[in-house]
Amino acid sequence: MQQYDNTNTGVLFINDKGDNPKRPDRKGSLNVDGKDYWISGWVREKDGKPYMSLKVERKEQQTTKPAPPQAAPLDDDDGDAIPF
Length: 84
What we know:
Layout: E1 10-14, E2 26-32, E3 35-46, E4 49-58, H1 59-63
Antiparallel strand pairs: 1-2, 2-3, 3-4
């Protein structure tokens, strides 16, 4: 059985905004050259004409957050000695 090729395709669904008006009106996924992205859309209006504003984020980048920087260990010859 031949598998469907999703390369260079995408889909948008109506998004449940709940009580947050800043949430996108549409959410979905997109594949470009074999790389997966999330896509969000907001219905806007300019000069009385509707249009959709879009935001695209790599799926890998959205879920990965950098770890906070770690403090360098102190070089202490006395071990447990308190310096005061």
